[in-house]
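Q: How do we represent a protein-ligand complex in a form that can be generated token by token?
A: Start from the inputs.
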Amino acid sequence: MKSDKVLIVEDEVKLARFVELELKHEGYDVYVANDGRDGLNKFYDEKPDIVLLDLMLPELSGIEVCRRIRKTSKVPIIMLTAKGETMDKVLGLDSGADDYVTKPFAIEEVLARMRVALKRVKSFSENSETVMTLKNLTIDIARRIVKVDNEEIELTKREFELLYYLVKNKNIVISRDQILNNVWGYDYIGETNVVDVYIRYLRTKIDDKYNTKYIHTIRGVGYFAKDEE
Ligand code: CA
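Then emit the structure tokens for the protein with calcium ion bound:
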């Protein structure tokens, strides 16, 4: 089996080296860049399957590198953040990152997040159903395009997966735990309000924009995507 390629972009050389050795030990094919510009160049050259991206980097910031990668690629990106940089700050910037790990981290946590992200990509590419609908909203699963009427909605990868999961189970009430387990993965370690935060992002981009209620809240239970009023 071909090894997954990982690109580490981290300016703390010792930390980068440590993660590199650990990942190599796990059987990954590893590339390292120590600043944002080199990171972007190595991304284009090596076409990694997943990127571990430090937030504070010389040359180009992690957020900027992430945005540029997202212009051409849906590759999973896990941000490495320092303490005090909250989830809202990191992911709410719409950088397109999939997940984040706070430093100092245990390598097992990074490995767990990587496995979840890589598995998610794989399960999406294996899905045979092509288009799903919710009212006038359509999801082209293979091409990962969401449209309302004929207007395309720009979603981050995680927003897309959350919407996909809700629509796949439309008209069924789903608990936060079910969403967390299916969209973030069973080994997700982090803020438990992440589901609510992402529901809010989706509502801003879809419900509010089109003045239609696609995602309903059942207080104390969870959420559901409703097809008919
Ligand atoms: Ca740094």
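The first helix runs from residue 13 to 25. The CA atoms of residues 12 and 34 lie 7 Å apart.
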